[in-house]
Design goal:
Elements: H1 19-22, H2 35-38, H3 43-50, E1 56-59, H4 66-77, E2 80-85, H5 91-106, E3 111-116, H6 123-134, E4 139-144, H7 148-151, H8 154-157, E5 161-164, H9 170-184, H10 192-202, H11 206-217, H12 227-233, H13 246-260, H14 264-276, H15 281-296, H16 303-317, H17 323-335, H18 341-356, H19 371-375, H20 416-433
Parallel strand pairs: 1-4, 1-5, 2-3, 3-4
């Protein structure tokens, strides 16, 4: 049996309610921005049409409708709605819910257990859900803003379907603003540019957009605000960015791939997003140094000095002055010729080293500091390259039991084009010297 409408207290109906709460959808069809799940053919639509829900995790940013969807799913499938917040609830609260759910099940009624911020429960608490989810005592609907892959137990995830909710796009936010105007019987005091700026300020959060609208409805203003007046009137939403969670990894990945794709403008944008979000610039500097070696490599040997110089400059100047050095490194790395030849060469050499075990170097390139080592042939027939014509002996430096292998294959870009010419030249000299080299 569905929980139905919540019963109000004696004076509750006259108490003020936030606009976002008053406009909370009463049917799944009123949810905006999540058509991929709720429209005809969407996964949640199919479940509700069939009248059967599976346990699930709703993963999405704040203000996208996770709590409302969970409540309406319970209504649509006639399940008792039991809401808990992982921030305020503990094991004792869970036990009470499970006891009520077991009793309800005996009378033929089901329970939808909604846990907001489910990622806040520790591993042991998450394990406590498993038997009740497994035997169907509860249908679990967990809501999280964090990547479930990082925050939830594998055992729990294996028993739940994960549905990704979108941040609300511009059209969805405009839909909410129009609903707010209809409910208030008034038009937001904004010109067209300021209205667009208001949607941008919300940054995909429908609840925040409605809270901003409520502030504006309360203004005693006879004229429409422009963007400057709007910015002075309401508070901009802080960008979503958790330096220890998925936002951190998503943005550094976006920066890295923008540089690899030689897009300096996108690289600067993602750098700015990270700095505005409060990322430690030293972390960015470390990643730029890594990029210089991994993705630019010897196609531009100056890339690494540029990245390290930017890092050093930031350490000396700090923020905000040192951030300009990071921006210069971003532009340099984005516009540099790219090669991962050394990166691939090291990986190939590492695999070969693991395959070949403990092969000894050839004796002719070993030093012989003792008489016994000389008698054993250490250093015998070594050709000192500086004493050989062309400064290249062509000797074999691989283990005797190992065929020569090519790990490093320079690309035809930037400085590596010159390196390729040198390697080709030495290959010709090595072939002319014969199998024993120049010794």
């Amino acid at each position: 049996m569905s929980s139905g409408p919540r019963q109000e207290g004696l004076f509750e109906s006259s108490a003020p309610r936030p606009l976002a709460d008053r406009l909370r959808p009463q049917d799944l069809a009123e949810i905006v921005g999540q058509d991929h799940l709720l429209a005809e053919g969407g996964a949640l639509r199919r479940m509700t049409d069939a009248g059967r829900l599976a346990s699930m995790i709703l993963w999405g940013p704040p203000g996208c409708g996770k709590t409302t969807i969970a409540r309406l799913l319970a209504d649509r499938t006639e399940l008792e709605f039991e809401p808990l917040s992982a921030v305020f609830s503990g094991v004792a609260d869970l036990r009470k819910v499970f006891e009520r759910a077991k009793a309800r099940r005996l009378s033929g009624h089901g329970t939808l257990l909604f846990i907001d911020e489910i990622h806040r429960f520790n591993r042991a608490q998450q394990d406590g859900f498993l038997p009740y989810v497994e035997d169907g005592t509860v249908i679990l609907v967990g809501a999280t803003t964090e990547n479930p892959s990082f925050e939830l137990n594998a055992a729990l995830l294996s028993r739940c379907q994960v549905f990704v909710l979108n941040r609300l796009d511009d059209a969805a936010l405009e839909n909410l603003l129009q609903r707010a105007e209809a409910a208030e019987g008034a038009t937001l005091p904004l010109d067209a540019d300021a209205r667009a700026a208001l949607r941008a300020m919300a940054d995909g959060d429908g609840r925040f957009a409605l809270n901003l609208a409520e502030e504006l409805f309360a203004l005693d203003s006879g004229t429409a605000l422009d963007t400057v007046a709007l910015a002075a009137t309401v508070q901009r939403r802080a960008p979503l960015y958790d330096k220890s969670q998925e936002g951190h990894y998503n943005l550094i990945s976006a920066l890295h791939k923008s540089l690899r794709g030689s897009d300096a403008d996108a690289g600067l944008y993602w750098l700015a997003r990270m700095l505005v979000g409060g990322e430690d610039p030293r972390y960015i500097a470390r990643r730029l140094a890594r990029f210089a070696y991994e993705d630019v490599g010897l196609a531009d040997p100056q890339a690494a000095p540029q990245a390290l110089a930017a890092w050093d400059c930031y350490e000396r100047l700090g923020s905000p002055e040192g951030e300009l050095a990071l921006a210069q490194a971003v532009v340099y790395l984005a516009t540099a010729p790219k090669s991962n030849a050394v990166y691939k060469a090291l990986g190939s050499a590492m695999r070969s080293a693991r395959e070949t075990g403990s092969l000894m170097p050839p004796k002719h390139i070993l030093n012989a500091p003792t008489h016994l080592m000389k008698e054993l042939g250490y250093g015998k027939d070594y050709a000192y390259d500086h004493d050989v014509a062309d400064g290249f002996s062509g000797q074999d430096y691989f283990p005797g039991a190992m065929a020569r292998r090519r790990f490093y294959r320079p690309v035809e870009r930037g400085f590596e084009r010159e390196i390729a010419k040198r390697l080709e030249y030495w290959d010709r000299l090595r072939q002319s010297a014969g199998p024993d080299g120049g010794g």
